[in-house]
Specification:
Structural class of chain A: alpha/beta
Shape of chain B: globular
Oligomer: heterodimer
Strand content of chain B: 15-25%
Number of helices of chain A: 11
Low-confidence stretches of chain A: none
Distance between the termini of chain B: 56 Å
Mean pLDDT of chain B: 86
Largest sheet of chain A: 6 strands, parallel
Structural class of chain B: alpha/beta
Helix content of chain A: 25-40%
Radius of gyration of chain B: 19 Å
Distance between the termini of chain A: 35 Å
Helix content of chain B: 40-55%
Order of helices and strands of chain B: EHEHEHHHEHHEHHEHHHH
Order of helices and strands of chain A: EHEHEHEHHEHHEHHHH
Largest sheet of chain B: 6 strands, parallel
Chain lengths: 248, 271
């Protein structure tokens, strides 16, 4: 075990709201990385996107952060970080990664013993790499080459094709880890919000503490779903990749 | 929202629950929402009934553990409970008998309630007790319906798994609430079976829009391979499995070469 490389996993997304599925992806990724025999996952960071992202129905960041903290309250390895959620503008994934990696280095003084940081994402995020004009090549190289990517895929998507179809990703394929989720468990936050505003039960899709929080604060109503309706996503307005590595 | 013309319903789910997963619990939530949305029903209780050890399914661990896990899983629910009776029987019990048992319990509970206020409604109740099968629930006694997945509906046509009269009793006298995946054609099974078709008004198909295929088989596989099952099962169940050391390669070999109890029973004399 001593020779294993310590590793921290970072996931960025709306988490609007956080679901059991989001938490599950961390578990799957950790198991997979341990099974390579090369890594020891020492931490996970969940980073909710800021309000300026402009996605339809996006609840205020302070609520999304609070819910994520409630959900992960009894996780002994994944924590919520609100840095990205507090930024005045939307943050490119590579910028968020740099921030967290610098934090890690600060805590460890020297680079030698410091853990690696890898991006935890879904297959749909990997697909965005090949969209022309969305990503800067040096950013792809930095995300995949300098840091690394752990991608959890649902049955139907083909993440290996996404790697194949992007030259830069392909060049760094040794640092792109593909995890297969065998049980399709498609709890999407979109479906959760839909059920909530229709007054249907979401128990066992979200942790109980999160459901309580939503009820107490009256989140996810017909009105809240209209927020940002018709607005252009901030990254698209500025041209750039969406900051959600874990989508709904 | 309580209306006098709403029928009270108790949902009963029978199965291995080996172990109970979030998906099992989710089925209850979906069924309740669906029934109450019709405006005709009020779901007052859910019962999880783990099958007894005599069922002889491969990898089926002791009922005592499965009952305990179901109890831990339902601790946070204010309406779903565990019915340990079936799991405590030495021999495998047909589902129809399990339903009858729980219906008797509902009748007994109602009778007790009656004794408290006999003066008010004593005579009226005795008269209503003589009503036929289909009328229960309109009185004080709730209807009892079997909650199941589409696989159970499908299994009705598997030879030697069910007695024909049991199917008729389950759907005719009690009723079925069946959770189906989006895209699956559960009505086809109803259409293809004369018994089911005859009682189609007693069959409620509930569409699950969010695929949630947490199977207990998958959970056991992950457990014996030392992989995480967190967030697939409630945390207290994950903890119980760890403490008790359940679901190993050895436990999966249980009943490996044994014929399933219903198949044993109903195929007797046929071969």
């Amino acid at each position: 075990m001593a020779s294993r490389v310590p590793l921290v996993l970072l996931a960025c997304g709306s988490f609007n709201p956080i679901t059991l599925q989001h938490m599950r992806l961390f578990e799957l990724a950790r198991d997979h990385m341990h099974q390579t025999g090369q890594f020891q996952v020492v931490g996970g960071i969940l980073s909710p996107v800021s309000d300026v992202y402009g996605k339809q129905g996006l609840a205020p960041a302070r609520h999304r952060v609070a819910m994520a903290r409630l959900a992960l309250g009894n996780s002994d390895w994944v924590r919520v970080d609100d840095w990205e959620s507090k930024q005045a503008d939307w943050t490119e994934t590579v910028v968020t990664m740099r921030h967290h990696y610098n934090q890690i280095l600060e805590q460890h003084q020297n680079t030698a013993g410091a853990p690696q940081l890898k991006l935890l994402c879904g297959a749909d995020f990997l697909d965005t790499f090949k969209v022309p004009g969305l990503w800067r090549d040096d950013h792809v190289a930095e995300v995949a080459g300098r840091f690394g990517v752990v991608c959890v895929s649902r049955g139907s998507l083909q993440p290996d094709r996404a790697v194949h179809e992007c030259d830069t990703l392909s060049r760094h394929r040794n640092n792109v880890f593909l995890v297969r989720e065998w049980v399709s468990n498609e709890i999407s936050a979109t479906e959760v919000r839909r059920a909530l505003r229709r007054g249907l039960s979401v128990k066992y899709l979200l942790p109980d503490a999160v459901i309580d929080y939503i009820r107490r604060h009256g989140l996810y109503t017909w009105e809240s779903e209209q927020r940002n309706k018709g607005a252009v996503l901030r990254p698209l307005a500025q041209q750039g990749a969406p900051p959600e590595t874990l989508s709904d | 929202m309580e209306k006098s013309n709403q029928t009270k319903v108790v949902l009963l789910a029978c199965g291995s629950f080996n172990p109970v997963t979030n998906m099992h619990l989710r089925m209850f939530e979906l069924a309740r929402d669906h029934l109450q949305d019709t405006g005709n029903y009020r779901v007052i209780k859910g019962i999880i009934s783990p099958v007894g050890d005599g069922y002889k399914k491969k990898g089926l661990i002791e009922a005592s553990h499965r009952i305990e896990m179901a109890k831990l899983a339902t601790e946070s629910s204010d309406w779903v409970t565990v019915g340990p009776w079936e799991g405590q029987q030495a021999e495998w019990v047909e589902t129809a008998k399990v339903i009858r048992h729980h219906y008797e319990e509902l009748l007994a509970a109602e009778r007790n309630k009656d004794e408290v206020d006999t003066v008010k409604i004593g005579k009226k109740r005795r008269h209503e007790d003589r009503d036929g099968w289909a009328h229960h629930g309109r009185t004080g006694v709730p209807q009892l319906k079997l909650l199941c997945g589409a696989d159970v509906l499908e299994s009705f046509s598997v030879p030697n798994l069910w007695k024909a009269e049991d199917i008729a009793e389950i759907v005719g006298r009690f009723g079925l609430v069946c959770i189906t995946r989006a895209g699956s054609d559960a009505w086809k099974f109803v259409h293809q079976s004369d018994t089911l078709w005859r009682h189609r008004k007693n069959i409620h198909l509930v569409k699950e829009w969010v695929t949630n295929e947490i199977s207990a088989t998958h959970v056991r596989r992950a457990l014996r391979r030392g992989q995480s099952v967190r967030y697939l099962l409630p945390d207290p169940v994950v903890q119980y499995i760890r403490e008790q050391g359940l679901y190993t390669a050895e436990s999966e070999e249980k009943n490996a070469d044994v014929v399933l109890a219903p198949l044993q029973k109903y195929s007797e004399g046929c071969n």
